[in-house]
Amino acid sequence: MIALDQPGLTSGYVHFHNSTDKSAWQSVRLPIHCLKGAEGPTTLILGGMHGDEYEGPVAIDALAHTVNTDALVGRLILLPALNLPAVMAGTRVTPDDGLNLNRVFPGDPLGSLTQRIAHWLSDTMMPQSDHILDLHSGGRTLNFAPSILVPAASSQLSLAKAAGMAFGAPFTVLIDEDHAAMTIDAVAEKLGKVIISSELGGAGIVTQQTATLATKGLARMVAALGHLPIKETAATSRYVRLPPSDKFLICDDDMIFVPAVGLGATVHKGDILGHGRFIDRVDTKPRAYVAPHDGWVLCFGGQGLSRRGDVAAVIAQDAS
Fold first, then answer.
1. Side-chain half-sphere exposure of 72, counting CA atoms within 13 A
2. Burial class of residue 6, CB neighbours in 10 A (0-12, 13-18, 19+)
3. Mind listing the pLDDT tens digit for each residue in 18-32?
4. What integer best gives the mean pLDDT of the chain?
């Protein structure tokens, strides 16, 4: 672990013991950067919570190498590859224990590797931070219109919303997820911290557009939190709400889902969003999937082939 009170940029690793068939005394080394300037707040910035989501690690790496600490107010603690084994494997879950890091909070100090990383964050890093920025994308199986997410339960919702809007993603999304109790959001809320997350693309790839938005948007959000001078104003972000999960469109069977509209498009209740094509059957016609309510196309499934139970589409609703 590096010193977190040293002025300027300090970089190194956080070590976690891991004993596997391949390496009995393995040390998993999570990269960490700390940038410290004048007295001010601390923001913890996380990428790679899931290993198949790439915009966060790219943006955090860029921030680590571009911030002038002479102009910095406060402290930025950067973890660009929080779940390093998953990042290096390109998988959503940790390869060694099969756990989803953002479903095991607050973690367990005596548990598996994933549980111990979650506990270290919950017990050591988050208490000393004022804000937590947790950057996600859709991963291999989802594809999002780039969005910033703010929890509806946040005790500092106005600050989270303002910082989220400063990022400049097409959408800023108010969320109230039914699985929130096992995520990092619940720990942040219990500690009274501001937490902001994102969904910045997906389908298991990174594009020039999403990488540029993530890099510039993160710098704008850090400035909006008071760490750096504000140099540019982003385009207006639309404020929307994530619907409850029972309003997601779910695949009824294995199929190829073919979108009929683009991500971010405005739709009305009953509009056709796409068709499921059952190419393994000669007696089944394509099925149309329609919008359950007015709103905007926030998410499609990220893979051509969708399985029964997968998300086909999510339509965000106005939150203003």
1. 23
2. exposed
3. 998 889 999 999 999
4. 96
Q: Which residue segments constitute the domains of the chain, with CATH numbers given?
A: 8-241 (3.40.630.10), 245-318 (2.40.50.100)
Quickly count: other Cβ atoms within 10 Å of residue 19's Cβ: 11
Which residues neighbour 181 within 8 Å (Cβ) at sequence distance 6 or greater? none
Assess whether pLDDT exceeds 90 at residue 153: no
The answer on pLDDT for 179 being more than 90 is no
Secondary structure class of 219 (helix, strand, coil)? helix
- Is residue 131 within 8 Å of 164, Cβ to Cβ? no
* Residues written for the chain: 320
In the predicted model, what is the mean pLDDT of residues 147-159?
Answer: 93
Q: Strand 171-175 relative to strand 147-151: parallel, antiparallel, unpaired?
A: parallel
Please check whether residue 64 is in contact with residue 35, taking contact to mean a CB–CB distance below 8 angstroms.
yes
Q: What share of the chain has pLDDT > 70, as a percent? A: 100
